[in-house]
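dumping this here so i dont lose it
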């Protein structure tokens, strides 16, 4: 299979985990050899610095840790995951579905930069993760676009209204608005497929979003098979 790494991106509360699982099950039903991965990998010691950052141990605001340092925390976690858990599968032709990837740094950490620095920072991410660390580039990125006001409603349900359970990113709406801006910039620059996840101020059903994802995946993966 030519295309091996599909990434589902989006801000907190956009439904990435649900859609990654639905897509993985769909691909299995299509008789694909497929493996689902997720980042950060909180079950692995490699995510220790990510946990410290999101838990506020390195600063109470996202900007307290600069974009390059925070990006490195996430990149190291991805590197460890790749070498330990999915490199062999990937190289042997298994289709990988990732809930977040290096593309998350092009959303969350890019938002900390001035607009005049956007392209320079994105080039650094590309060079650092894909060339220097040797992580594979994604073949297809699907960005789940959910307005912050709607995603906050979903996060409130997830945590039963307990805002103290939100991490450093989830609890900062102003930061998340900047992240959505940087996400849409990155999507345009790198030709990510944008999947609208709300309609008239309410979330679309997970089935409707899944159907949009399947249309993209069918066109991109199966029509490209030899």
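and the seq i came up w/
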């Amino acid at each position: 299979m030519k295309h091996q790494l599909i990434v589902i991106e989006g801000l907190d509360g956009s439904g990435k985990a649900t859609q990654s699982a639905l897509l993985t099950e769909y691909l299995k039903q299509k008789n694909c050899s497929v493996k689902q991965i997720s980042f950060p990998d909180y079950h692995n010691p490699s995510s220790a610095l990510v946990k410290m950052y999101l838990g506020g141990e390195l600063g109470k605001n996202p900007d307290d840790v600069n974009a390059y340092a925070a990006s490195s925390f996430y990149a190291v976690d991805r590197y460890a995951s790749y070498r330990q858990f999915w490199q062999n599968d990937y190289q042997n032709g298994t289709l990988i579905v990732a809930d977040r990837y290096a593309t998350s740094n092009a959303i969350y950490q890019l938002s900390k930069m001035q607009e005049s620095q956007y392209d320079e920072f994105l080039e650094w991410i590309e060079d650092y993760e894909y060339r220097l660390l040797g992580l594979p580039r994604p073949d297809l990125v699907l960005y789940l676009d959910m307005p912050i006001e709607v995603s906050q409603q979903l996060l409130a349900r997830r945590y039963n209204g307990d805002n103290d359970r939100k991490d450093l990113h989830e609890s900062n709406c102003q930061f998340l608005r900047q992240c959505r801006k940087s996400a849409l910039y990155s999507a345009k620059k790198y030709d990510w497929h944008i999947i609208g996840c709300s309609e008239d101020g309410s979330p679309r059903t997970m089935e409707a979003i899944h159907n949009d994802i399947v249309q993209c995946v069918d066109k991109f993966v199966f029509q490209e098979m030899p």
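The chain is about 50% helix and 15% strand.
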